[in-house]
Every structure is written in structure tokens, then in C-alpha cells.
Amino acid sequence: IKDLLFPDTCVCQMNDGHLVESLQEAFLKTVVSRGGSNCVMVVLGEHAGKVEWILERELERGWTLVQLGQDQKVLPLCYDSICHYLGG
Fold first, then answer.
1. Which pLDDT belongs to residue 37?
2. CA 23, CA 71: separation in Å to the nearest integer?
3. pLDDT tier at 19, thresholds 50, 70, 90
């Protein structure tokens, strides 16, 4: 995703560099990469903005178990409430 035009509409850049404009959220599927880090950011709900770790993935059901760093709490979260975190 390159830019958000509205809360449910974005501009996406494809792997080949092609830009797709005015793409509706309903046409997107959340994917959390298996490669590299298991670090994710929570983007929805009471823990939004926190960077956490994936413990387990359930691809068929679209959810993951995420461990909250400070609390050591484990939460089941749907893929739509997290994103892969590449920051420091």
C-alpha cells in the first residue's frame, strides 16, 4: 500500500511497479509474511500501535496468536487487525 485516499480506499504498488489506484479495502487480503521477523504491529483494537511477536499462525482461519511484550499475555488476533512490522 502506497497511500490511503480514504479510510477504505488506497493506492497499491504491485511487484512489477505498476500502481493500482482507488482500490477498495474489500478487494485486499491481509498477508503476514513467514520470512524474516515474526514481528507485527497491532492496527485495530485496544492494543493498536503496539509491536508484538507472533507465536502461532492459523492460515485457514485467518488468525494468529500474538504475545504482548510487557504483559507476556497471549492474544488471538485476526489477520485484519495486524500488519507485518519492518521497523527498528
1. 67
2. 37
3. very high
